[in-house]
Design brief:
The protein is α+β, with helices and mostly antiparallel strands. 42% of the residues lie in helices and 16% in strands. The chain has one domain: Alpha-Beta Plaits (2-Layer Sandwich), CATH 3.30.70. Strands 1-3-2 form a 3-stranded antiparallel sheet, with helices on one face. The longest helix is centred in the first third of the chain and has 13 residues.
Amino acid sequence: MAEQPNATTEERRRPNPNEKLVKVFDSEQESEAMVVKGLLDSANIENDLASASLLQETFPGLGGMIILVREEDAEKARTLIAESLQPPSANDSADEPDDDDSTEELQAKE
């Protein structure tokens, strides 16, 4: 996509509606959709957040918000979204100090 010199940052991040766009995320909660949009924006994946009620012909029965991306970016976007929804593993919490250890250290210093 060629960037327009006077286009805002938001306009440059949105995919061209004439391209084939696919749904990669939907949510009843606008706030959740905004978080996912921010995730995709930070990964430089152009996306469009739309109200699903406006797209009933394309996605019947869907309410809330949907995120659309270019077809070629869909797999990367879905992978990124799936990874972000994973709960932290047990190894992630092992790096954090345990409250009991810091209490013991404080008692030893006294």
